[in-house]
Each structure stands twice: as structure tokens, then as C-alpha cells.
Amino acid sequence: MPYKRAAIILIQNNNILLLHRHKNGMDYFVFPGGHIEKYETPEEGVLREIKEEASIDVTVEKLLFEHEDSNAHQYYFLATRYSGTIRLGGEEKQRQTKENKYSFEWVPIYSIQNINLKPEEAKKKLLQYVKN
């Protein structure tokens, strides 16, 4: 059974907050989030993960979409408000090395089609949402 993961799609001023990774020679972006614990709902998991990873509190507006592949069942939540100062925390901060770097970046929402954003299926669903 695939594990469960929750991610936040935080949009402000037509920009989206993404986690930029340089890992094992690869350069790509991901949606902030992580593993949902057994005792958590997907929304509780995404709130905990964004607090751990980015040191901020977000206000979830709604579940935007779900995506399932062979690895995980993923929940993507929309947020447009947050409080606190965005700074890398949690496991990502601890895993930083010369070959493994993480940083948060605000990316113009309409440019995400031109970046290496993973997973590709979630990127497509977000682009569809933005178009509507």
C-alpha cells in the first residue's frame, strides 16, 4: 500500500512557494509537505509538515486535488495566507550538505510550466487549476 503524503500549494501575489532541491546532481522543485502520520488527517499532516519544513503556519482553504502513483497517495491543499518567517527547518535543514541543498523560493505561478517541478502529474493538475 502506498504511503500518504500531504503538500501545500501556498500562493501569494501570483507566486507559489516551492522547495528548490539540488540533490545527487539533480536540480528540481517540489511542493512543501511530507508524510502523514497514522494518527493524522491529511490536513493535520500538511499543517505539521509546513511548520516543520518552513517554520510557518498556514491557513488551509481547501483540498485542491489528490494524486496517486505507485509510491504514494498525495493530497494537495491550497493556502493563500501564512504567518511567520519562512526559513528552512526540520529534516531538510539537517540533511543539508554540499551535494544536497534545499531552499525555499517564490516562483511566479505562470512560470511553473517551464521549471522541473515534481511530481509532473501534480504540476499538470496545478496548471489546469490556474487556467480555470
Explain the layout of strands and helices.
Elements: E1 3-12, E2 15-23, E3 26-30, E4 33-35, H1 42-54, E5 57-68, E6 72-83, H2 90-94, E7 100-108, E8 117-118, H3 120-131
Parallel strand pairs: 1-6, 3-8
Antiparallel strand pairs: 1-2, 1-4, 2-3, 2-7, 5-6
Strand residues, percent: over 45%
The overall pLDDT, averaged over residues, is 93
The CATH architecture designation is: Alpha-Beta Complex
Number of strands: 8
Distance between termini?
A: 33 Å
Poorly predicted sequence stretches spanning 5 or more consecutive residues: none
Helical amount among residues, as a percent range? 10-25%
Q: Tell me, what's the shape?
A: globular
Question: Count of helical segments?
Answer: 3
> Strand count, sense and closure of the main sheet?
8 strands, mixed
Q: Examine the coordinates and then state which fold CATH places here, giving the name of the CATH topology.
A: Nucleoside Triphosphate Pyrophosphohydrolase
Structural class: alpha+beta
What is the number of independent domains? Answer: 1
Radius of gyration: 14 Å
CATH superfamily: Nucleoside Triphosphate Pyrophosphohydrolase
Along the chain, the helix and strand elements come as: EEEEHEEHEEH
CATH class: Alpha Beta
